[in-house]
Amino acid sequence: MLKIENLTKTFDPGTVNEKRVINHLDINVKEGDFISIIGGNGSGKSTLLNLIGGVFPSDTGKIILDGEEVQNMPEHKRAKYLGRVFQDPLMGTAANMQLEENLALAYRRGKKRGLSWFIRPDERKIYKERLATLGLGLENRMRDKIGLLSGGQRQSVTLLMATLNSPKLLLLDEHTAALDPKTADIVLKLTDQIIQKQELTAMMVTHNMQDAIDHGNRLVMMDAGKIIYDVRGEEKKQLKVQDLLNLFQSLASEEPSDRMLLD
Predict the structure, then answer these.
(1) List of residues 6+ apart from 171 with CB closer than 8 A
(2) Mean pLDDT comparison of 21-35, 86-100, 242-256, highest-scoring range
(3) What is the pLDDT of residue 117?
(4) Of 231, 227, 172, 180, whose CA–CA distance to 201 is shortest?
């Protein structure tokens, strides 16, 4: 589903602040993979997702999504292939619009649209059914402004919006980091349910090593813009947090960050 070859990205080139964030990175993602990505601060995790999403261009390399090279495709054109959920619950939704209006924007992404702003009854039925699967009672609040919802509710809706049209690739950038532990656990369970039910291909950046072990079928560790460890299947399931810490200390160029240790 995704093939990345010789990907590099340097910020502030030619200045005293020059930093290579992605360093000749290669990775193949099979259809149906759910990959958790861990690493220290500045290891390139979020930058990798931003390069895939087209937030900024890469310096070199290829990004091949479902057989099509997209590294030179602008962000708005890649959007129809991708679903994204960000760390900040406020980023994925328009606060002053109704819940159903936010869902309509996501549902119509990549499709031809006219000038009228009208939600058809058949669309509204779809939104209500999908909201009911969240188990939060939001199917009865579709006319509410989404800015009235809690952070956990908004992030759950953002996750639903990102997967309404079953994207080719779902990108989750620390999407539970801003939530309290109980709410984060609920959102992670919803993530698992949606990915499994729709058989999605997904990449999830996280600082929480236990979450990286518990979720997905594959785990990737990054350091200095490279992948230094890649494990899947039964070997991944047998991992413990201490195993990951030991691996990071033996393979990485830096010590684990305070955030990784606290998580």
Answers:
(1) 49, 52, 53, 82, 83, 84, 85, 202, 203
(2) 21-35
(3) 61
(4) 172
In a domain, 88, yes or no: no
Same domain membership, residue 172 and residue 77: yes
pLDDT tens digits along 49-67: 999 999 999 999 999 999 9
Q: Do 124 and 253 belong together in one domain?
A: no
Q: Which amino acid, 91?
A: M
| Structural domain harbouring 99 | 93-166
Whether residue 160 sits in one domain with residue 133: yes
Nearest Cα residue to 130 out of 193, 174, 176: 193
Listing DSSP states for 99-139 in one string gives HHHHHHHHHTTTS---S-----HHHHHHHHHHHHTTTSSGG
Residue 200 has a CB neighbour count (10 Å cut-off) of: 22
Q: Within a domain: residue 135?
A: yes
Q: Are residues 117 and 228 in the same domain?
A: no
Q: How many domains does the chain have?
A: 2
Contact 40, 223 (CB under 8 A): yes
Position 253 scores a pLDDT of 67
pLDDT at 40: 85
The pLDDT, as a whole number, for residue 186 is 87
Q: What CATH number corresponds to the domain at position 22?
A: 3.40.50.300
Tell me the mean pLDDT in the region 128-142.
88
The predicted-structure confidence for 153-177, as pLDDT tens digits, reads as follows 888 899 999 998 889 999 999 998 8
